[in-house]
C-alpha cells in the first residue's frame, strides 16, 4: 500500500509542478519608469520646477500636477514658449531652440485619468545655450480645512422655553437665530478657504552642444542626393612639366591648366599672354589685344598645396584662328638672379610651354601668310632689279 500512496501523491503533485514551471518561463514585465516631476509638488512650492538638459541629454519630461486638472501656458498646440520667467513675451519653440519639439506622452492603460505628461525633445548636437519657460495654471483650491458647521439640535428635540439654565432650545426664536448665525459663519468660513487660480513656473535649461563633426569625404552629396563631381573631373586639368603641350580652347569648354611643382607661370600677370603667331612664344602682349578671354587663378585649398590651377575662359570666338602661349619656368632662372651662371643655365632649361590654339569663325589669320616683306628682302629685291636693268 505504501507504493500506491506514493504514486497517488506524485500524480496529484505533477500538475502543480507543471504550473510552477510554466509561470517561471513567463517573461518578467519591465519595471515601470518613475513618473515625471510635477510642478505642484510641495518641494517646488517656492522655486518652481527646474530641469536641465545636459550635453548628453536630448529629452526631458514634466507634469503640471500630480492629480487634478491643470493647464499649460503656452498651450502645446501653439508650439510656442515663454522667453522669460514672467511669460511676458513668447516666441516659436523652433526659433528659441532650432529642432526642438514639445509633445504629450500617451498615458498607459492604468493611467487614463492621470495628468498629462509633457516631453521636450531637442537636438543632441549643434544646439544653443538657452532657457525655456512654461507656466502651469491650476483652478481654485482650498488653502485650509473648511470651518466646522454650527451645532444643531438633534432631530425631534425641541427647546424648552421654560428652562432656566441659560441654554435655549432649538425650537425657541432665540435658538433659531443663534443657529442661523452659526450656519452663516460656517458658510463664510468655507468661502474664505478658496483662492483664485494659482500658477507654477517650469524652467528648462538647455546646455549648448557643438555641431556633429562630418566625416571627411572627397566628394559631398549634392541636393539631389548623388555625389557631386569634382571640378577636376568635369574639365580635365592639363599639367605642364616639360617640353611643349599643345591644347585648344573653345567657347563651350574652358581650359584648365597648371604648372608642375617648382614651376611658375609666365607671364606673371594674368592679364598678359605670349602671342604665338611665329611659334616662338616670346612676344608678351595684353591678353585682351589677342583674344576676348579671361584668365583666373584658382587658389589651392590648404590640404591641396601646390595644386591650384588656372582657368582660361573664352568670352567671344575670334574671327580668325589665333595662337597664344604660356610658359612654366623655374623662378630662379631669371637672368637677374644671384645664382651662379652655370646654375642659371641649367635652370633655364627646365621649362614647359603651353600652346593654345583657338579656332576662328573666319579661318586662318593673315599673319599665317606674310605679305609684308622684311627690309632685307626688300633691299635684295631692289638690287636684283638694278643689276637686271644695267645688264
TrEMBL record:
Residues 45-141, 250-358 form the SRS domain. Residues 178-190 have a biased composition (Basic and acidic residues). Pfam families: SAG (PF04092). Keywords: Membrane, Signal, Transmembrane, Transmembrane helix. Residues 212-227 have a biased composition (Polar residues). Residues 91-116, 140-193, 212-231 are annotated as: Disordered. InterPro entries: SRS_dom (IPR007226), SRS_dom_sf (IPR036755). GO terms for cellular component: membrane. Coiled coil: none annotated. The chain crosses the membrane at residues 368-390. Residues 1-22 form the signal peptide. This is SRS domain-containing protein. It comes from Besnoitia besnoiti (Apicomplexan protozoan).
Amino acid at each position: 500500500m505504501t507504493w500506491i500512496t506514493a504514486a497517488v501523491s506524485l500524480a496529484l503533485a505533477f500538475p502543480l509542478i507543471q504550473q510552477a514551471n510554466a509561470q517561471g518561463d513567463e517573461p518578467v514585465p519591465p519595471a515601470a519608469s518613475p513618473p515625471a516631476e510635477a510642478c505642484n509638488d510641495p518641494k517646488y512650492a517656492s522655486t518652481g520646477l527646474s530641469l536641465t538638459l545636459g550635453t548628453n541629454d536630448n529629452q526631458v519630461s514634466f507634469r503640471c500636477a500630480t492629480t487634478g486638472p491643470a493647464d499649460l501656458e503656452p498651450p502645446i498646440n501653439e508650439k510656442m514658449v515663454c522667453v522669460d520667467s514672467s511669460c511676458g513675451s513668447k516666441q516659436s519653440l523652433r526659433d528659441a531652440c532650432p529642432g526642438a519639439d514639445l509633445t504629450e506622452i500617451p498615458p498607459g492603460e492604468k493611467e487614463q485619468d492621470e495628468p498629462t505628461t509633457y516631453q521636450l525633445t531637442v537636438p543632441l548636437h549643434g544646439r544653443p545655450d538657452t532657457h525655456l519657460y512654461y507656466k502651469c495654471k491650476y483652478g481654485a483650491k482650498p488653502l485650509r480645512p473648511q470651518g466646522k458647521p454650527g451645532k444643531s439640535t438633534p432631530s425631534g428635540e425641541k427647546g424648552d422655553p421654560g428652562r432656566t439654565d441659560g441654554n435655549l432650545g432649538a425650537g425657541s426664536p432665540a435658538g433659531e437665530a443663534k443657529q442661523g448665525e452659526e450656519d452663516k459663519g460656517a458658510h463664510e468660513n468655507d468661502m474664505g478657504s478658496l483662492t483664485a487660480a494659482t500658477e507654477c513656473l517650469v524652467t528648462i535649461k538647455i546646455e549648448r552642444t557643438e555641431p556633429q563633426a562630418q566625416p571627411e569625404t572627397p566628394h559631398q552629396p549634392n541636393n539631389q542626393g548623388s555625389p557631386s563631381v569634382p571640378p577636376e573631373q568635369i574639365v580635365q586639368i592639363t599639367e605642364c612639366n616639360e617640353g611643349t603641350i599643345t591644347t585648344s580652347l573653345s567657347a563651350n569648354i574652358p581650359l584648365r591648366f597648371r604648372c608642375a611643382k617648382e614651376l611658375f607661370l609666365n607671364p606673371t600677370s594674368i592679364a598678359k599672354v605670349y602671342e604665338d603667331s611665329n611659334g616662338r612664344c616670346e612676344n608678351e602682349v595684353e591678353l585682351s589685344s589677342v583674344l576676348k578671354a579671361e584668365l583666373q587663378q584658382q587658389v589651392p585649398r590648404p590640404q591641396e598645396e601646390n595644386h591650384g590651377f588656372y582657368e582660361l575662359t573664352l568670352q567671344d570666338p575670334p574671327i580668325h584662328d589665333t595662337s597664344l602661349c604660356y610658359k612654366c619656368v623655374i623662378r630662379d632662372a631669371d637672368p637677374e638672379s644671384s645664382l651662379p651662371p652655370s646654375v642659371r643655365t641649367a635652370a633655364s632649361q627646365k621649362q614647359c610651354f603651353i600652346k593654345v590654339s583657338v579656332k576662328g569663325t573666319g579661318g586662318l589669320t593673315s599673319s599665317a601668310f606674310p605679305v609684308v616683306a622684311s627690309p632685307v628682302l626688300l633691299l635684295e629685291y631692289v638690287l636684283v632689279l638694278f643689276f637686271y636693268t644695267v645688264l
